[in-house]
Amino acid sequence: MATKEVRATFDGHSFHVIDPVDLAPNSECLIYIKEVKPKQTENAINYLFSIAGTAHGPRDWSKEHDHYLYGTPKTVNLE
């Protein structure tokens, strides 16, 4: 008999399956429980603030971002 890993939530009384399960209705199963921490999503602005000042690149990066991202001709020469 194959072992399956299925994600579920517990509401205090019952488990609610998140992943699809290929079992016949009323099938009896043995469940092993391993609690997992939910992935925390971080909003974009908090992420940007957390990495501010850590990126390295050319001195004119902020003024010439189109050049570095899309290959357009440079408009300002800081050198």
- Given helix and strand content, the structural type is alpha+beta
Helix count, DSSP H or I runs of 4 or more residues: 2
Order of helical and strand elements: EEHH
Low-confidence stretches: none
Largest sheet entry: 2 strands, antiparallel
Strand percent estimate: 5-15%
- Give the termini distance in whole angstroms: 69 Å
Percent helix, as a range, is 10-25%
Shape: elongated
pLDDT averaged over residues: 84
Strand order of the largest sheet: 1-2
Care to count the β-strands? 2
- Cα Rg: 25 Å
Question: Can you describe this structure in just a few lines?
Answer:
The protein has helices at 44-51, 65-70; strands at residues 8-10, 15-17. The chain is an alpha+beta fold. The model has no long low-confidence stretch (mean pLDDT 84).
Question: Could you describe the 3D structure shown?
Answer:
This protein is α+β, with helices and mostly antiparallel strands. The chain is 18% helix and 8% strand. It is built from two helices and two strands; from the N terminus they run E-E-H-H.
Walk me through the topology:
Elements (H helix, E strand, L loop, with lengths): L7 E3 L4 E3 L26 H8 L13 H6 L9
Antiparallel strand pairs: 1-2
Keywords:
single chain, 79 residues, alpha+beta, two-stranded antiparallel ribbon, 2 helices, 8% strand, elongated
